[in-house]
Amino acid sequence: NDGHTGLYVQRAFEQLGHQVEFYDYRAIGTSPELKNETVLHHSKNADLTLILKGEIFSPETLRSVHPCVLWNFDCWYCQEPSFLEQARSADVFLSPCGGMVKQWRDEYSINAFYLPEAADIELHRPVPPVPEMGADVTFIGTVKDVPERDEWLAKVGAWCDETNHTFKIWGSFPGEKSGKWHTGLRAGGTNWTGRPLDTPPTEDEVHNTVVSSSKVILDRQRNPEIRGAISARIFRTMAAKGLVLAKTGPYLEGAFTRGWHLLTYDDDGDCLRQLDLALGKDNIRHPITGFVTSSSTSMPNLARHGYESVLSKHTWKHRVQQLLEIVK
Fold first, then answer.
1. Which among 313, 323, 171, 298 is positioned nearest to 235, based on CA atoms?
2. pLDDT 10s digits, 183-197
3. Which of 74, 216, 2, 251 is nearest to 82 (CA)?
4. What CA–CA distances, in Å, run from 61 to 31, 86, 327?
5. What 8-state DSSP symbol labels residue 258?
């Protein structure tokens, strides 16, 4: 398990009627030997061993477990020198980085398959808006140490200031140029849930409320053209009925229809044009149907279409079913 994602995957297996033994690598201890021994011990009687944090296990351990599925969601880990041997050592390697799968298979003999992230529709869902938690434009994600993202968000913030729109960045750490618009990802002591103050909202609850309270949720995946990964936040945002404006990419456009499920942009200038479209009052001609509507009515429809698409195709139950088909 690797934290939140492990919980979503575990819940999906159980919802499909499978018995799951769940181990959080952080609770096993700090010894690499103990972590590897734990996997070897508990995989003996398992029909399937699924590892979501492959970089902490040795290739020898992965080769000793069958069937062993390594499902890694961190596209940056895929660039580590140790990655290729670990991925090759598993019976099946799954990754949301669709743009790299062919290279892994052809050049490195890795049994790799594309499998994107998804949403848990019981945890990622529409909730009543809380005005102080939202904005006209909101970005959710890390900005610190990502200069290209920091510079882009500073442009968005400046545009929002000039056009009298509110803008917030919900991230763990602020960037140097866009820090003016940064706010804490977690509730920071504010508890709007109605529960006692000593039970603060979960990160998923914060995300749902921010999305439901904002008009547009921005997304900027790092190098989507190369790695082909769809940000997990896109699925989670759509599951909460949020309107997504994301950087275009081949795998994103393969999963969703531009102008029907979400809005996309090609570059920084196009991003601002799309924001003006989404927040303005101009008429919009749908690129497929040709039907003309005002932005005030069409934007909620986009959010609804995206929500319906996630529920029908992009839940963690769908992903686990796809995983089992691959392994079979």
1. 313
2. 865 444 445 455 555
3. 74
4. 14, 9, 19
5. B
